[in-house]
Amino acid sequence: MRHKFIITATLGTIAIAGVSQSCVALATSSIGLSIIKRILVGGISSGLSTFKDKNAFLSNNLIDQAMPSQLRSINATLSGLGLSSLVQKEKEYIAEAAAFTSNLAEPILINGVNSLTTNDAERIAQGGSGIATQILREKTESQLIATLAPKVDEKLNEYGIIKTINTALKGNNLLGNLFGGNSSSNNNASMISNLATQQMVNGLFALISNYEKQNADVLNNAFKK
Fold first, then answer.
1. pTM for the full model?
2. Closest CA to 179 of 76, 46, 68
3. How many other C-beta atoms are found inside a 10 Å radius of the C-beta of residue 81?
4. Residue 166: is it exposed, middle or buried by C-beta count within 10 angstroms (0-12/13-18/19+)?
5. Span 75-90, mean pLDDT?
6. Taking Cα atoms as reference points, which of 96, 203, 58 lies closest to residue 141?
7. Cα(138)–Cα(114) distance, rounded to whole angstroms?
8. What is the distance between the alpha carbons of residues 225 and 219, in angstroms, rounded to a whole number?
9. Given phi > 0 = left and psi -120 to 50 = alpha, else beta, which region is 68?
10. Phi and psi based region of residue 171 (left: phi greater than 0; alpha: psi -120 to 50; beta: remaining)
11. What pLDDT is attached to residue 32?
């Protein structure tokens, strides 16, 4: 009986491996790559439509959750000082910066999708939920931040929100603690803009990943054909 069990288990392992290889073969085919790309492009379109709609951006929980902890600390301190209205203005201006920069983000993301290789497709077939978005992020995140950060900084300074935050927190050691003891106005302005940019990029990938997960069955069914 023991020998039979070992043989059965071995055959089962071979069968599972065969299914896995079949999935990989389908994923790395032109059809498989096309489906992966189509889902990612759909996620990009869905995510950027949220970025272009100020109210949708402000009310989206994934974008709120994407806020860096340093920016959340700044906002909590401002609220503790009775300046909740300033926090709301900051969020609104970040939403407007997101809409302002959405057209810059789109070609970077689309180029990232078009650069997917068969090796990437193999990782996606063998990976877990959200892996396609993770690979897209690996390909595009640094370029997104480098491209968007100056525009976000320009927009936030245009509205004067960073100067207002600096003034409101003058004498408070929070900014110095967050930014490594360097709390000059110029450094604060740059860092706050960078935090806003990071929230936008984090939020955008969270939206794309959410779309991918919602369409997981499309991917899985395609790989099993």
1. 0.82
2. 68
3. 12
4. middle
5. 93
6. 203
7. 14
8. 10
9. beta
10. left
11. 77
